[in-house]
Specification:
Largest sheet: none
Distance between the termini: 20 Å
Radius of gyration: 16 Å
Structural class: mainly alpha
Amino acid sequence: SETIRMTPEDVQAFAKAANDLNPIHYDETVAAQSRYKRLIASGTQVAARLMALTANYFTVNHAAVGLDFSL
């Protein structure tokens, strides 16, 4: 089991790298006025983390190139 914590700086850096223009992902002032009251990670960032966890799990004992997810 692995715990992933995303800091506000992580969320802002991902938004910048992804050219995410939704201010709730990078502007703390705008985010503070939202119903969440703080920055939130985008669905894209969460999905990327899940894909990384999946890839890491399946590559522990197998080659990462040409993955075959059958067991």
